Amino acid sequence: MAPVTRPASTVLTPSTSLSAIAGIGTEKLRALDKLGIATVHDLLYHLPRRHEDSRMVTPVARLRAGEVQTSRVRVRNAGRRVTAKKRMVIVEASLVDDSGVVSAVWFNQGFLVNQLRGGLELMVHGKVESERTGLVFRNPKFEPVGGGQRDVGLLAPVYRETNGLTSKFLRSKIEPLLPLAAGIADRLPPQVRHAEGLMPIARAIAQAHFPDDEESASRARERIAFEEMFLLQLAAQRARRRRLSSAGVVIPYDVATARAFVQSLPFPLTDGQRAAAHEILRDMADSGPMNRLLQGDVGSGKTAVAAMAAVMSHRAGVQTAVMAPTEILARQHHATLSALLDAHGLAPRLLVGSTPARARREILEAMANGRETLLVGTHALIEDDVVFSDLGLVVVDEQHRFGVAQRQRLRRKSDLTPNFLAMTATPIPRSLSLTAYGDVNVSELHEMPPGRQPVATRVVPPHQRDEAYAFIREQVGQRRQAFVICPLIEENDKLGVRSATAEYERLRTQVFADLRVELLHGRLSARDKEERMAAFAQGHADILVATSVIEVGVDVPNATVIVIEGAERFGLAQLHQFRGRVGRGQHRSFCLLFAGSLDDEGSHRLDMVATTHDGFELAEADLRLRGPGDVAGLRQHGLPEMLAADLLDVAMLQRARTAAQRWLDVDPNLTGYEPLREAMHGYRAVFDLD
Ligand code: ADP
Ligand code: MG
């Protein structure tokens, strides 16, 4: 292969920007960039989804009608004509080999005629059909023979084709760059690679794109998948070792205190709450600091479980900090905890951005000298001057909304490592949590407290839109409120999807001109968002039109209807989350799903949301139907994208985990192999690493 250099004499390396590569125009660069592909390295790691096998060559005389076949031929002649009736451009060619003649025909690709000079040797691949005149290749792919086969006559890579990036284009750009894979630093240490019988990265990349055979293709993928799993496990196991070796705050599990708390509650705990509380209390009593995630739908009673942990922490004489991503949520937690803990002489304090200076000073003083035990708040808790005398438990709600650094700053407000409890209403399936969470133990709340009515959910066909609006009007007439969720902020003609701003204008001026309609979307400042949400929660608007930014945990007990536009564009678990914003008061609530166009699979998906009310089950269904990329919680968790690894491959996971453990036993600080240290940066958003 010719050396890969540009006329400008730039020597290409894996880190070269694709804009420096000949033949990639601005439009393609933009399309690649959307896929996160900006450099040669990125492009080399853009792996095919499968290969198309056109290796078996059939002599023309033995071609059979009705099958996809490949032949090696010479062009006898080729021409172009336009059909009289439909004015369709047709290119026809007569192709020969030693055994016979076959024709080929292409529709509406007139330019092809220029690529079919007489005498040219070709590999053709496509479906052969029988016509009056004999056998015909219909719309076949073809490629001249000699000079590096990329499309036909080999195992040709087939890529995910988005934004106008065809496999043919990607092949033509990737193949000449493959020699540069030699310059990629192998992130797998040679020792691990040898022990696992895996090929070097340069070979793996070359073989993943243009393999010698199937066996080689699958070994190349396995190698890259192992690398991803190994690094993930290395990061997870490192975080785990660090945590367990740090001196934690021990909070003894006092059964009498737990029992007294449960008895003081105005309701019996659900079985799930009981089990989760037990797991948490046991973890806190262990010497290694707790690192646990409590997953459960909005309203499943996570705060009540956290309250029990706070009571135990109070009894042990240590403090608890509860942090939520927004002021409304912090206030809500504060109210819930105050109600639950009142009987235990525990009055939580609230610290948010808007807390007046004097009150703030008093709170800081009370926490610093240990007079108070429980502080609830927002980011305001991590300010430097917030000091705890003895912090033993940190609870973070919707923790993916905070950066690792913010979480750590709160945890470090103690000399010892405090116990850490994260809560989330965006569950990821258990099968995934094993890999994705690594160092975290997970507790799940699967059931809602009794007495809650499930939100009646319906997929509304387009012709019933007016009836749906009439229904909203009727609910508002009964002083209830409604949400309208749209997939986009602004109109985008190409997608034909309803946007929040356009929908807001339409509803405000036409459909509900006499009602109070408000708008909420992600381009508003955090402050504006909170204010509008709070105004709605206080009943100052009848209808809130919003994008998916709308707060997960916010309680608006008076809201009874949620309309979701373009429902087919959301994941099932996400739809379920939206739905959780209604049905929080004593009134019967409704979720109306409007869809753009629905194929059978789309209808089936929406029907599932209508009939299933378990968030975990829906997350699991998302996983089955659309793959890990579409599991909402996973994306929010910040896990680096997996190119080859299958997060559900437990055997691979265990193999990678064992290898990672072995490596850490010998080289706990990753000083033994530089690329490993560097690779760990990619996992900072997931694990608390130093
Ligand atoms: P989450 O934090 O999971 O969204 P909360 O803990 O805020 O849920 O609980 C939602 C509401 O349900 C609160 O008003 C809470 O007091 C109440 N609740 C919690 N657990 C129970 C239960 N076991 N039975 C009845 N009501 C409960
Ligand atoms: Mg909550």
From TrEMBL:
<comment type="function">
    <text>Plays a critical role in recombination and DNA repair. Helps process Holliday junction intermediates to mature products by catalyzing branch migration. Has replication fork regression activity, unwinds stalled or blocked replication forks to make a HJ that can be resolved. Has a DNA unwinding activity characteristic of a DNA helicase with 3'-5' polarity.</text>
</comment>
<keyword id="KW-0378">Hydrolase</keyword>
<dbReference type="InterPro" id="IPR011545">
    <property type="entry name" value="DEAD/DEAH_box_helicase_dom"/>
</dbReference>
<keyword id="KW-0234">DNA repair</keyword>
<dbReference type="InterPro" id="IPR033454">
    <property type="entry name" value="RecG_wedge"/>
</dbReference>
<protein>
    <recommendedName>
        <fullName>ATP-dependent DNA helicase RecG</fullName>
        <ecNumber>5.6.2.4</ecNumber>
    </recommendedName>
</protein>
<dbReference type="Pfam" id="PF19833">
    <property type="entry name" value="RecG_dom3_C"/>
</dbReference>
<keyword id="KW-0238">DNA-binding</keyword>
<dbReference type="InterPro" id="IPR014001">
    <property type="entry name" value="Helicase_ATP-bd"/>
</dbReference>
<dbReference type="InterPro" id="IPR001650">
    <property type="entry name" value="Helicase_C-like"/>
</dbReference>
<dbReference type="GO" id="GO:0016787">
    <property type="term" value="F:hydrolase activity"/>
</dbReference>
<dbReference type="InterPro" id="IPR047112">
    <property type="entry name" value="RecG/Mfd"/>
</dbReference>
<dbReference type="GO" id="GO:0003677">
    <property type="term" value="F:DNA binding"/>
</dbReference>
<dbReference type="GO" id="GO:0043138">
    <property type="term" value="F:3'-5' DNA helicase activity"/>
</dbReference>
<dbReference type="Pfam" id="PF17191">
    <property type="entry name" value="RecG_wedge"/>
</dbReference>
<dbReference type="GO" id="GO:0006281">
    <property type="term" value="P:DNA repair"/>
</dbReference>
<feature type="domain" description="Helicase C-terminal">
    <location>
        <begin position="464"/>
        <end position="629"/>
    </location>
</feature>
<keyword id="KW-0233">DNA recombination</keyword>
<keyword id="KW-0413">Isomerase</keyword>
<dbReference type="GO" id="GO:0006310">
    <property type="term" value="P:DNA recombination"/>
</dbReference>
<dbReference type="InterPro" id="IPR012340">
    <property type="entry name" value="NA-bd_OB-fold"/>
</dbReference>
<keyword id="KW-0547">Nucleotide-binding</keyword>
<comment type="similarity">
    <text>Belongs to the helicase family. RecG subfamily.</text>
</comment>
<feature type="domain" description="Helicase ATP-binding">
    <location>
        <begin position="283"/>
        <end position="445"/>
    </location>
</feature>
<dbReference type="InterPro" id="IPR045562">
    <property type="entry name" value="RecG_dom3_C"/>
</dbReference>
<keyword id="KW-0067">ATP-binding</keyword>
<dbReference type="InterPro" id="IPR027417">
    <property type="entry name" value="P-loop_NTPase"/>
</dbReference>
<keyword id="KW-0227">DNA damage</keyword>
<dbReference type="GO" id="GO:0005524">
    <property type="term" value="F:ATP binding"/>
</dbReference>
<dbReference type="Pfam" id="PF00271">
    <property type="entry name" value="Helicase_C"/>
</dbReference>
<dbReference type="InterPro" id="IPR004609">
    <property type="entry name" value="ATP-dep_DNA_helicase_RecG"/>
</dbReference>
<keyword id="KW-0347">Helicase</keyword>
<dbReference type="Pfam" id="PF00270">
    <property type="entry name" value="DEAD"/>
</dbReference>
